C-alpha cells in the first residue's frame, strides 16, 4: 500500500528555520567588555513567521529576525545559568522589547555570574523552586477553588505566585490562597475577566474528526502518530482526517489534570515534521527546545489562522469547568473555538498544543498550551522533524528528592515475573483512567534492574509505565502495553525516586501489580 503524505496536520504556521549567525545585542546595564557572541545557526527564518510576528507584535521584519535570534541565544543561556545557580535561580524573562534577558537571583553574590554571560541580574527573595513549591500547595487545594477563581501561575518577574480572580471576586481569591496555607507574602491576587474553557468540538487547522462527530487539530507529528489536546478524545476513540478518511485511534489521553493525548495513525498516513502554514505551504519543525518566559510564540488554527504573542508564565494552573489542569504555559495570544489541539512554536522549535483560553481574536485574550516535551517524555514518544531525523525530547534533570509532602513508600518484595504470585498492589482501572502505585506514592532505588508485571482485568487493555522523578516532575522511563492480559516491563535505571502508573485503554475491573527494585 502506498503511504500518503499526512494531510491533517491542523497545526500552526509558526515554525521558523534556525537563524543566521549573530552577535549578542546590547542589553540594558551590560558591560560591553562582557558581550559575547550568540550561537551560530544556519537557515533563514520562514517568511510566514516573520509576517505573523510583524503583525501581532508590531515589529518590522528586521526586528522580528533580531528578536528570534536573541530568543534562541536566551534559551541556551537560561539553561546554562539554571544549572549553575541551583537553588539561587529565581527565574528568567525577556524584557517587553525582547532584547534584554533578565535573570532573578536569590543570592546577590551570584549577580556577577549573570552579568558575565550578558544578562541582567535581578535580586529577589525567593528562588523559583520555592515559588513552584508555593504553587504546588495551591494545586493540592485546587478542589476548593470556586468558579470565581480562574487559575493561578508563577510570575517570576514579580517573584510571586498570582491567583487570578473574576472582577469583584478578589476576596474569593484571597480566601482560596489562605485556605491552602501558603505564605501570604508569596501570593498576590489579581482580577481579570477570564473564563478559560477548552477549545474543542469545532474544526481547527487541518481538522481531524473524533468518532465522526467532534473535531480538533493535530498538534505535532511523532513516530507512529501525533499529539494533540487531551480534552479532544479518550483512549479507544477513532479519528478521521480532514478528508474523512479513517486515520487512527486515541492511544492515550489525560484531561483534566493534564491536557494531552496521543493518536496512533494507520498505514495510510505518514507523520511529517512540518506545520501547515494556512497559506498553501508548510514550515519546518526542527526540535523542541523550550523557550523562556518573554519569548515570542505563535499559534495557528483554521478558525483564526496564525496568531503570535509572547509567553507570560509557565507552570500555570487553569480551573476549567471540567476540572483543574496544571503545568500549562500562559500566553497573551488570542484563540477561538476550533483552534484546540493545534501547535505552538517559537522559531522552528515545538512548544506545545493548544489547551484553552479566554477572550477571542477581536478583543484579545489569554490562551494556554500544554508543553510538548512533557507529552513526549511521559509517553516515550519521538518528535518527527523536517529533516526526517526523529528527535527525542530534551533530557530531564538529575534525580532529586520529590517534594517533602510526598512520603516515600518501600516497595514490597513481589515476584515481577508472575503476576499471580506475591503481588505488590491491586487496584481498579477503567478506560481513560490512570492510577499511581504504590498507593499514589513513590519509592527509592539505589540503581540497577527494575521489573514489573500487571495482570489486566478480563477483556481489558492497560499500559504500565515506570516513572522517575527528575527534579520537578515524574517522567516515563519505560512503558509496556498489555497483551493476552499481561503487561511486563524491565528497565536498567539509575538511583532515584520512582513510581508506577497504570493507565486503562479499554475495559474495566481489578488489576494486580507485582514489581521488584534494588
Automatic annotation (TrEMBL):
GO process terms (BP): proteolysis
Name the UniProt record assigns to this protein: S1 family peptidase
Lineage top rank: taxon: Bacteria
Any one GO cellular component localisation term in the record: extracellular region
Peptidase S1 domain residues: 226-376
A UniProt-annotated Pfam family: Pro_Al_protease
Family annotation (InterPro entries): Alpha-lytic_protease_prodomain, Pept_S1_alpha_lytic, Pept_S1A_streptogrisin, Peptidase_S1_PA, Peptidase_S1_PA_chymotrypsin, Streptogrisin_prodomain, Trypsin_dom
Keyword Zinc-finger annotated: no
Domain Peptidase S1A alpha-lytic prodomain residues, every copy: 126-184
Low complexity: compositionally biased ranges: 400-418
Keywords: Disulfide bond, Hydrolase, Protease, Serine protease, Signal, Zymogen
Cytoplasm found in the keyword field: no
Coiled-coil residue spans: none
Region of interest called Disordered, as start-end residue ranges on this chain: 385-420
